[in-house]
Amino acid sequence: MRIFFTFLFIVTMVTVKAQNAQVWKNKQCTVVLTYDDAIDVDLDHAIPVLDSLKLKGTFYLIGSSQSLSSRMDEWRKVAKEGHELGNHAMFHPCDGSKPGRGFVTPENDLSKYTMAREANEIKMNNLLLKAIDGKDKRTFAYPCGDLKIGNELIYPHIEKDFVAARGVGAGMQTIDKVNLSNIDCYMINGQSADYMINLVKQAMQTHTLLVFLFHGVGGGHNLNVGLGEHSKLLHFLKDNEKNIWIAPMVDVAEHIKTYQDSNKSK
Question: Which of these, 67, 24, 23, 66, lies nearest to 42 by C-alpha position?
């Protein structure tokens, strides 16, 4: 009897693994490349290598960004090339009451916001982004990873305006476990290409979603990845594209939502 149940367990696990390997467009895993804050190095460093390899990413834009204001035509071209312009709020408010938040200015202190103000500013940024790219569907990224004002979650107040939202917590999930209101990611700050490539290999083995969070690429931000390290990661992804689905967050989130909705009734 023990042999039978052991055999049944093995068969079940093999079946589940085979199913998991099929859910990501018949590839082993999904990788999403996200870039925060709408800074010049996105346009000067990240976009050129992405476009040279024909890879698409998601750029979470702050509506008040100087780069967005002064280089809007270039950002418009970014959208036309198939990258997502995601919403990172109009003024990037962060909760200044948390430890280590000395950089938060009084006017952009999320702990002093009302929920209505936060929701209105996020929706205002959506309107700006639509004026740039003409699109209605996009995803949101929480500034500083702050999910709440006080004890109240932000996402229920903006959920109708987005396909999903990305947080800052680290992790990889199978398609059925992804939380579309707070998608996990790996924030990169000084790690090597080997570290990032090993994460991709882990995602391939576990058939999970892997999201990278970048700020500066080759400079431009106090959170930074080396230009060469970033390039090595992208070249690895391109070399393994037949086994990895690489797409903007909005496309991946829509795919996940469709899958999760279709399996709710089963």
Answer: 67
